[in-house]
Amino acid sequence: MTLVQLEYLVAVDTYRHFATAAEHCFVTQPTLSMQLQKLEEDLGVQLFDRSRVPVRPTEVGKDIIAQARIVLAEAKKVQEIVLNQKQELSGELRVGVIPTLAPYLIPLFITSFLEKYPHVRVVVQELLTEQIVEKLNHELLDVGLLVTPLENKSIRELPLFYEAFVAYVNPDHALAKSEAIDPGQLDLEELWVLNEGHCFRSQVLNICNRGVHVGAEGKGHLDYRSGSLETLKRIVETQHGLTLLPELSVLEMPEEKLRLVRPFQEPLPLREVSLVVHRSFLKKKLIEALQKEIVAAVPASIRERKKEQVVAIK
Fold first, then answer.
1. What residues does the HTH lysR-type domain cover (predicted)?
2. What is the CA radius of gyration of the chain?
């Protein structure tokens, strides 16, 4: 058994396709297949069910693959020890970030981070929470920027700050006359929310204390299901009702639109924004540098806020 064989094994599990796995390992498919067959012969077990499309690991294969990931991660730490002796950070940092954070948080820190660490290549992908966790588990991302807690044993959470929810209200709505809103005043029939799959949607419904299905009933003739907070804002402005937004999204808002923003009454409903990594994560110095840069870039009013009333995701 060799590390190369374990790399091929993990690659096939990640991509569930021998040709794709071979491409990502920079070898031919026959070479990869031959090495995996030799590994199966040495172990005396079948690792993959090749009769299925896409290919799937066998039950014993799942256990061996999980252990292979641990072995490969520990082997990579040897290289990381050497790299950590260098004064200058370098390499690639693959970051996954949820859509309700990306357009508001990334611009706050990315320029200063790249200027401070010019030899680091940052690759950012906008993904939903489940996709980020899956890619972390398959080593296709180094770190995620999302909302916690996740209660996932394979993931380590590094809280960054606590961001408040605010309401964005059509000027003709009754709540537009309120200085601050009580969650009990929210009517789901007047509330525009994101599509299923967004953790922000779940938190909005939990603020309303009603984790129920939300359709477009009660909104006249318009049935609009959006994956964008910016789209929901435009609907509120041009139609009616209200939506909830994360605090960072209103920081640079022009004055005429800021008039439509209403805070909640104390205690403020908050969401916990964190860096998340796999339990056996690598690139620790890069991730520590990213963590410091993000915290420094967030406004002090948010950075200094204590954990109070974090809204559940589920």
1. 1-58
2. 23
Which residue bears the tokens 């071979």?
22
Euclidean distance between CA atoms 249 and 247, whole angstroms = 5
**Which residues 6+ apart lie within 8 Å of 306 measured at CB?**
162
Q: Which CATH architecture has domain 91-161+273-305?
A: 3-Layer(aba) Sandwich (3.40)
Pick the CATH number of 162-269 from 3.40.50.720, 3.20.20.70, 3.40.190.10, 3.30.870.10: 3.40.190.10
CA-based nearest residue to 233, from 184, 193, 273: 193
Question: What does the pLDDT read at residue 91?
Answer: 86
Can the peptide bond before residue 299 be classed as cis, meaning omega within 30 degrees of 0?
A: no
Distance in angstroms (rounded) separating the CA atoms of residues 162 and 306: 7
CA 71 to chain centroid, in Å, comes to 26
Reduced to 3 states (helix: H, G, I; strand: E, B; else coil), residue 12 is helix
pLDDT at 47 over 90: yes
- Does the global pTM surpass 0.85? no
- Other CB atoms within a 10 A radius of the CB of residue 178 amount to 15
Please identify, in words, the CATH class of the domain defined by 3-83.
Answer: mainly alpha
Whether the CA torsion 67, 72, 75, 77 is positive or negative: it is: negative
Contacts 24+ apart (CB under 8 A), 64-72: 64/9, 65/9, 65/10, 65/13, 68/6, 68/9, 68/10, 69/10, 69/139, 69/280, 70/280, 71/3, 71/6, 72/3, 72/6, 72/7, 72/10
Compute the distance between CA of residue 142 and CA of residue 96 in angstroms, rounded to an integer: 8
